[in-house]
Design a protein that fits this description.
Blueprint: H1 4-16, H2 21-40, H3 51-64, H4 69-88, H5 115-122, H6 140-162, H7 166-171, E1 177-178, E2 183-187, E3 193-197, H8 200-217, H9 238-252, H10 262-275, H11 280-287, H12 292-295, H13 297-301, H14 303-313
Antiparallel strand pairs: 1-2, 2-3
Helix pairs in contact: 1-2, 2-4, 6-8, 6-9, 6-10
Length: 324
C-alpha cells in the first residue's frame, strides 16, 4: 500500500502533468522501491529525503541490487521530481537530490538499419502489394495467419516511413490518417499534436492494410476505431507491436540482424532523413522531440554526413563563387 503522499504525487503526474500510463507505472515502481528502502532503514519517507540517506540508496541500487548507471539515474530523477512536488506543496524546503553526484552514463549511439536495406524492404514484393488478402480463405487459422502477415507488414512499413514511437503507433485511430493531405496526425508525449508527412507508397500500404482488415476481420471494431487492430479487433498492446516488428524483420533477411524493435526503426528513419540532407530542426519536428539536444545524437551516429554539411556550409571549405 502506497504512502498517501506518494499516491498524491502519482495522481498529480497522471492527471495534471498528463504523463503516459507507462511513465506513471515507472514512477510508481521507483517510488515504491524507495519507500521500502526507507522502511527498512527505519525512517519515514519524508525523513528519508536527505543527502545521506539518498546516497545510501544510490549505493544500495548500484552494489546490492546490481543496477546499472542508467537505472540508478532514472530512480534519482523520479525522486527528484517527487521532491520538487513536495517543495511546491510546502512539505520540504529544498530538493536534496540536486546535491548528489550521479553515476556517469556511458555514451550510447543509436542502433539503426542501413538506408539501402530499408529502401529494399519498402520496395519488396509483399502480401499487401500482391493483394493476397482478397483470396478466398474459409479456414479460421489460415485467415488469422494471412491477416497477421498483412498487419506485420503495415506496422513495420509505417514505422519505417514515420519514425513513430511504439505508443504513438498504438494510439493511432483511423481518422488519424488524412490521405487527401498526405499526413498522419499523431498525439505524442505530453499530448502534443504533430503532423507527419507521408509518401504516397506509405499511404497506399496503409489503405491496402485497411482493406485487408475489412476483408479478413469484418467491421466489428471498438470505437474510436484503431488504425491497427489485433485479430480480435482490439487496439494493439506494446508486446504485440514488438512481436510484429521482430517477426517481420527476421523474415526480411540478414540486413536486419541484431536488435529488432520499433525504436530501432525510429532511429533508422531519423538517420535516413539526415543522410538525405534534412535539417536537424525538421527532424526534431517530425520525431516530436521537445528540444534539439535529443535530435543531435544522430549527428554522432553519422559523422560522414556531418562532414558533408560542414564542407557545404563553411566559408573556407574551398568553394569559390559557389563552385569547389
Amino acid at each position: 500500500m502506497f504512502d498517501k503522499i506518494i499516491e498524491s504525487f502519482l495522481d498529480y503526474i497522471s492527471h495534471q502533468k498528463r504523463y503516459s500510463p507507462r511513465t506513471a507505472a515507472i514512477y510508481a515502481d521507483a517510488m515504491g522501491r524507495f519507500a521500502v528502502f526507507c522502511a527498512e532503514a527505519d525512517c519515514s519517507l519524508l525523513h528519508g529525503l536527505n543527502v545521506q540517506n539518498l546516497r545510501a540508496y544510490q549505493i544500495h541500487l548500484l552494489e546490492d541490487m546490481h543496477e546499472g548507471p542508467r537505472t540508478v539515474n532514472l530512480h534519482l530523477s523520479v525522486i527528484s521530481s517527487f521532491c520538487r512536488y513536495l517543495v511546491r506543496q510546502g512539505m520540504i524546503k529544498s530538493n536534496p537530490v540536486s546535491l548528489l553526484t550521479r553515476p556517469r552514463l556511458p555514451k550510447r549511439l543509436p542502433v539503426f538499419f542501413r538506408s539501402s536495406a530499408v529502401v529494399a524492404y519498402l520496395e519488396s514484393d509483399n502480401v499487401l502489394s500482391r493483394r493476397d488478402f482478397e483470396l478466398p480463405c474459409d479456414n479460421g487459422e489460415e485467415r488469422k495467419a494471412l491477416y497477421m502477415e498483412c498487419l506485420r507488414r503495415a506496422i513495420v512499413s509505417t514505422l519505417f516511413c514515420t519514425g513513430l514511437r511504439r505508443a504513438e503507433l498504438i494510439s493511432l485511430d483511423r481518422d488519424s490518417l488524412d490521405a487527401a493531405r498526405g499526413v498522419l496526425r499523431v498525439v505524442g508525449k505530453g499530448d502534443k499534436m504533430r503532423e507527419i508527412p507521408l509518401v504516397p507508397a506509405c499511404i497506399q500500404e496503409i489503405s491496402l492494410y485497411l482493406q485487408a482488415a475489412c476483408t479478413l476481420l469484418g467491421e466489428a471494431v471498438e470505437h474510436p476505431a484503431p488504425l491497427f487492430l489485433s485479430f480480435k479487433c482490439k487496439r494493439l498492446t506494446p508486446n504485440q507491436v514488438d512481436k510484429a516488428v521482430k517477426d517481420e524483420l527476421e523474415q526480411a533477411g540478414k540486413d536486419f540482424a541484431g536488435r529488432r524493435s520499433p525504436h530501432v526503426l525510429r532511429h533508422s528513419y531519423a538517420t535516413a532523413l539526415l543522410e538525405g540532407g534534412a535539417g536537424l530542426d525538421s527532424i526534431k519536428e517530425v520525431l516530436g522531440h521537445a528540444n534539439l539536444a535529443a535530435t543531435q545524437i544522430y549527428t554522432h551516429s553519422n559523422p560522414a554526413q556531418l562532414k558533408r554539411i560542414y564542407k557545404a556550409a563553411h566559408p573556407r571549405s574551398g568553394k569559390k563563387d559557389g563552385k569547389d
